[in-house]
Amino acid sequence: MSLPDSPGAYNDCYDLYQRAIDTxxxxxxxxxxxxxxxxxxxxxxxxxxxxxxxxxxxxxxxxPLYDTSEFDPLQVTIREDTEGGWxxxxxxxxxxxxxxxxxxxxxxx
Length: 109
Known about the structure:
alpha+beta
């Protein structure tokens, strides 16, 4: 079964992504089976693909928003809980950097 190419078919995905963007640690949603969670994860990825395609149509190739989705900073993963439920997590990518310092070049003197 192929997924639709219309952004309107993914309103639930947009809502979950938006809630994840608005929540610093991200969000999760529960499914009763692994197949349901996996299918929803596929839909989440498809929605971002559609957004990237639309940005390629909207922006010139040298524009920073060309081939992007506003939800690219988020990762979508699946995890099983101890009671057999399946969660789809939508969380920010990357490490939480707390200290960033410049490295100064040693002087030759």
